Amino acid sequence: MTADRFKKVLGGLPTHAVLIGLCLIWLIPTIGLLVTSLRPFQDINQSGWWTALSPPRGAEEYSQTCGSCHGSDGKAIATADLTDAELITKYSRSIKLLAMLKQEVEGQPHLEDAPMPDQQRAADIADYLKRISGIEARPRFTLSNYVDAMMGYRGRTTYAQDCATGEQALDLTCTASDLLNPRGMGRAFLNSLLVAIPCTILPILFAAFAGYAFSWLHFRGRMWLFALLVGLQIVPLQMTLIPISRVYAQLGLNGTFVGIWLFHTGFGLPYAIYLMRNFLGSLPRDLFESAYLDGASHWTAFWRLALPLSVPAIASLAIFQFLWIWNDLLVALVFLGGQKPVLTYQISNMVSSLGAGWHLLTAAAFLSMALPMIVFFSLQRYFVRGMLAGAVKG
Ligand code: HEC
User: How far is the CA of 110 from the centre of ligand 1 (A)?
Assistant: First the structure.
């Protein structure tokens, strides 16, 4: 028995190893992104996220070259207290620090017989001195990237710091109203909601009506119409962008929410109708027939019977439709562009072409992920059902 069991465990090992490996491949970049988004931007520019918990830059160099005389806390020589901010401001840059170290102290070389640090080591030491003297004391982890991304702030330092010194760049006022400025993720979040919620509700509502009609109303050409609708899914979205945006230009709908609501509703419908019809068609026939016998109209049967019973199908449709709209960049770019920036648009605008400001990108990515994660985890059980919903019955 034990041998059997042993074999079983051993046989399962490769599968487990592959699974764990796959999970890691998925998780590691995400964790890296999360850690990066929580680090101060100076650190992000200097070192990778995996060094987030290692000692600060320059600590090792300092203790090797300077620690023997100045002590590990920099206070050992009273006349040259390295934690004194005023003193360190004079040597805050590596060139100045090196020049000072080359001068003699009471007729002796400053470092005595220790070798002179090279440019890079001097820069690291200068950086470390700035930290212990408090000129540039910064926490290991901070939320400032998130604040800056919400405000779309790209100044010399962080939003909070620049507001405290009154040196804020751009036209920000340092009040809550900054959250709604057109460059920030705060405004974009609202816009994304204004796009995604109607674009989820509208197609599903229409699809529920249509699905009911296709399964319980008997009219001529029903199957043909349904086949046509399903066939419509073949039309690639990209192909219609230009014709529709020309129509919108004539109607004045470019850059309006109504325009994008119509577009997403139209493109969401074929699949939604297909799924709703399959679901509603698979409900027990007796149920509807006895309702009709009792004198229920189609209207009552739809609201009282069909809709409550199709909650699982509606929920899974809603999840997929919502996620697709939330993550869509193409349609939002064409029909809303910079006039009503949504999250995806704002993220793509966050980094300049030279790569500056990418610390904002990490936080922005997590801000845009937050809502889908909440939707996913709260409606998780509908996901599996949703994936099966289209396959149960043709
Ligand atoms: C051999 C011992 C020794 C070592 C090693 C040493 N120092 Fe010093 N350092 C001194 C002494 C002694 C003074 C005090 C000079 C004085 O009193 O004016 C001093 C002064 C200073 C001052 C103040 C200079 C000023 O203008 O007042 C700074 C800054 C400083 N050291 C930085 C460093 C750094 C950075 C290192 C490592 C790269 C280092 N020291 C390594 C002995 C040392």
Answer: 6
Calculate how far, in angstroms, residue 55's C-alpha sits from the geometric centre of ligand 1: 23
If you take atom 14 of ligand 1, which residue's CA is the nearest one?
80
Q: Which residues line ligand 1 (CB under 6 A)?
A: 65-66, 68-70, 77, 79-80, 87, 91, 100-101, 105, 110-112, 114, 117, 125
CATH of 185-392, one of 1.10.3720.10, 3.10.310.10, 3.40.50.10800, 3.40.50.300: 1.10.3720.10
More confidently predicted of 176 and 216: 216
Which ligand 1 atom lies nearest to the CA of residue 126?
35
pLDDT band at 34 (very low <50, low <70, confident <90, very high): very high
Contacts of 99 (CB under 8 A, 6+ apart): none
* DSSP result, 51-98: GTTSPPTTHHHHHHHTHHHH-TTS-SSGGG-TT-HHHHHHT-SHHHHH
pLDDT digits (tens, 9 = 90+) for 272-328: 999 999 999 888 888 889 999 998 899 999 998 899 888 888 988 988 899 999 999
CB 366 within 8 A of CB 31: no
Q: Which atom in ligand 1 lies closest to the alpha carbon of residue 122? A: 38
> In 3-state terms, what secondary structure has residue 109?
strand
pLDDT at 339 (0 to 100): 87
What's the gap in Å between 75 CA and the centre of ligand 1? Answer: 11
The pLDDT-based confidence of 35 (bands split at 50, 70, 90) is: very high
pTM of the model: 0.76
Tokens of 118: 């090279």
